[in-house]
Design goal:
The complex is a heterodimer of chains A (506) and B (99).
Chain A: H1 2-7, H2 10-18, H3 24-42, E1 45-48, H4 50-65, E2 77-81, H5 108-115, E3 119-124, H6 158-165, E4 171-176, H7 182-188, E5 191-194, E6 214-219, H8 222-232, E7 262-266, H9 267-270, H10 277-292, E8 296-300, H11 308-323, H12 341-352, H13 355-368, H14 373-397, E9 400-404, H15 420-424, H16 431-436, E10 440-447, E11 453-459, H17 465-479, H18 502-505
Parallel strand pairs in A: 2-3, 2-4, 7-8, 7-9
Antiparallel strand pairs in A: 1-3, 4-6, 5-6, 5-10, 9-11, 10-11
Chain B: H1 5-14, H2 21-38, H3 73-76, E1 83-84, E2 87-88
Antiparallel strand pairs in B: 1-2
Helix pairs in contact in B: 1-2
The chains are: A alpha/beta (506), B mainly alpha (99).
Chain lengths: 506, 99
């Protein structure tokens, strides 16, 4: 029974709670127990909100019993990346700078989750201030990949994707600046969506790079990811970059199949040096299946995509150096005393920020400094224009584009920490959509030769989430993969689960 | 672009970021390598291509100026490391001047 509650998706759980087969409290308790049994090894969470979760679930049960209306996510456990503010609850961004910071307001996304009666089970681990590709930059220790506890879950939303993959929560919220939802989703074998820039409010999202940051859903299947995006998306007057559009509704569009759609295969992505051969093979097989399902496959080119990564590593650090200037020891977070205000600020920032955050502040400050602004920052913004034009031209020929999400599968902890550029290369396929502001998702497409998950990326034009979900759903339904983490170093599946998992328990 | 230790210290000062000498040395190499990589953008970023600062064209977004509940002053400073009389407290930033 308990194992079934854990392996069920959000829509299935919602249906069973509606039918009165199980209560929201039972669902919440099952997930909290699973977290208690596994998170000492997985470390997906920085903080588990057990009492709050059970109180919210009890309230859902009470209202349902009284015949009162409940929200679209009533009683569904959600893991929330610790970069979104929660009123009165520590919001650390994985940083010592904010170790004891308790915000005085909820992010809009959090308000919407509460309004939908979702049960927030905890704050998920992440790379410090959402900078990294492995969660190894968390000041509170890395998360692990449930498929192999000696490997990274990807990042920066690695806590969120690990929690979803490990059955600690059916839904999770992540954020994506250059790939931070899609890459860890690929490495953990779950669905991760970066929506169109501006579809989801950034109010209460601690800013990293404001022209790129976007909140998005993580789930174990496409339908659940769409459900979560419906709950959090739509215009917010508190965010001036929010697109004036009502909350999205995808509904039956997901099941319409790919027949008649034109799908662009990005030539440069598949030819990229450093793309692992088995990742490439799985992605090509997935694309071929889309062709068999009736899609019209077209080879397309994004000629400037190769310049996306260097442009990103000027734009994102520049915006970060400005955004993170707010952490000055005055209004919130850490303060290290000093003789003067300037000394206090420099000491606070020295003690509060980790290596990667310092590195990016330094790159950004340098790129924006007198004499270098045009050569670096403005040049990068020109490349951004070229990439937007590339996407526009490609979408004239096709409805969506496809390619790999990440160049390789989950790597061992410590494998890339000594070489920043090797780590940055994890995001080579996800950054172009981030720069263009267009939606993209990662959907599992199989396992590599070592038995680790591979993600296929689907990219769509602005506000093209509907067709993007449709393609991903068609592939998911055709593949019908078993995405229960397994292997010699995998986290154990929920006890007493379906028969096919039994041998892995013993 | 090869940076010197003094370049690193200058940028750190601009960023109000304290660094140990070890960090200065490490960052000199890392920043030089990252900037050398990032400089690739200059080969295609010609002057005839306009820069894009923001991917979705929304400008001068306004909303109705209607009163609504907001944080109280006490809430607004409740997260401050040091506060006094309803204000954020910092080390002295203006020298005392003899009258």
């Amino acid at each position: 029974m308990t194992a079934e509650l854990l392996t069920s998706g959000a829509r299935e759980l919602a249906a069973r709670m509606r039918a009165g087969e199980v209560s929201a409290v039972e669902v919440a308790q099952a997930h909290l127990d699973r977290i208690a049994q596994t998170d000492d090894r997985l470390h997906a969470f920085l903080r588990v909100l057990g009492d709050d979760a059970l109180a919210t679930a009890a309230d859902v049960d009470r209202r349902r019993a009284a015949g009162q209306p409940v929200g679209a996510l009533a009683g569904i456990p959600v893991a929330l990346k610790d970069v979104l503010t929660t009123k009165g609850v520590e919001t650390t961004c994985g940083s010592k700078m904010l170790e004891h910071y308790r915000p005085v307001y909820d992010a809009t996304v959090v308000e919407r989750l509460r309004a939908a009666d979702a049960v927030i089970v905890g704050k998920a681990n992440m790379d410090e201030f959402a900078m990294g590709s492995s969660t190894e930059n968390s000041a509170f220790g890395p998360s692990r990949n449930p498929w192999d506890l000696q490997r990274v879950p990807g990042g920066t939303s690695g806590g969120s994707t690990a929690a979803a993959a490990a059955f600690q929560a059916p839904l999770a919220i992540g954020t994506d600046t250059g790939g931070s939802i899609r890459q860890p989703a690929a490495l953990c074998g779950v669905v991760g969506v970066k929506p169109t820039y501006g579809l989801v409010s950034r109010y209460g999202l601690v800013a990293f790079a404001s022209s790129l940051d976007q909140v998005g859903p993580i789930a174990r299947d496409v339908g659940d990811a769409a459900l979560l995006l419906e709950a959090i998306g739509g215009h917010d007057p508190c965010d001036s970059t929010s697109i004036p559009t009502p909350p999205p509704s995808y509904g039956a569009e997901l099941e319409r199949g790919v027949e008649g759609l034109r799908i662009g295969v990005v030539r440069e992505f598949l030819a990229t040096e450093g793309l692992a051969p088995d990742v490439r093979a799985r992605v090509e097989e997935g694309i071929a299946r889309l062709g068999k399902l009736g899609a019209d496959l077209v080879e397309v080119s994004l000629p400037h995509a190769a310049y996306g990564l260097p442009a990103y590593y000027l734009i994102a650090p520049s915006e970060c150096s400005s955004n993170l200037s707010r952490f000055d020891g005055v209004r919130y977070g850490l303060r290290v005393p000093g003789e003067t205000t300037e000394q206090m600020m420099a000491r606070t920032r020295e003690a509060g920020f980790g290596r990667e955050v310092k590195r990016r502040i330094m790159i950004g400050t340098y790129a924006l400094s007198a004499g270098y602004y045009d050569a670096y920052y403005v040049s990068a913004q020109r490349v951004r224009t070229l990439i937007i034009r590339d996407f526009a031209a490609a979408h004239e020929q096709c409805d969506v584009l496809v390619g790999p999400t990440a160049p390789e599968t989950a790597f061992p902890l410590g494998a890339k920490t000594a070489d920043p550029i090797a780590m940055y290369l994890q995001d080579v396929f996800t950054i172009p959509s981030s720069l263009a502001g267009t939606p993209a998702l990662s959907v599992p497409v199989g396992l590599d030769d070592a038995g680790l998950p591979v993600g296929l990326q689907v990219m769509a034009p602005v506000l093209g989430e509907g067709v993007m979900f449709r393609v991903a759903r068609a592939l998911e339904a055709d593949l019908a993969l078993d995405l229960t983490p397994r292997g010699p170093h995998a986290l154990e599946p929920p006890a007493g689960g379906p028969g096919r998992h039994r041998e892995l328990v013993s | 672009m090869a940076l010197t230790d003094d370049d690193v210290r200058h940028v750190a000062r601009l960023a109000r970021l304290g660094l140990t000498e070890d960090e200065v040395g490490a960052l000199r190499g890392e920043l030089s390598a990252i900037l050398a990589y990032a400089e690739r953008v200059q080969t295609v970023a010609t002057a005839d291509v306009p820069p894009t600062s923001h991917p979705y064209p929304l400008v001068n977004v306004l909303r109705a100026d209607e009163p609504r509940p907001s944080l109280t002053p006490a809430e607004a400073i409740s997260t401050a490391p040091q506060a006094e009389d309803g204000r954020f407290r910092v080390p002295r930033i203006v020298e005392e001047v003899e009258p």
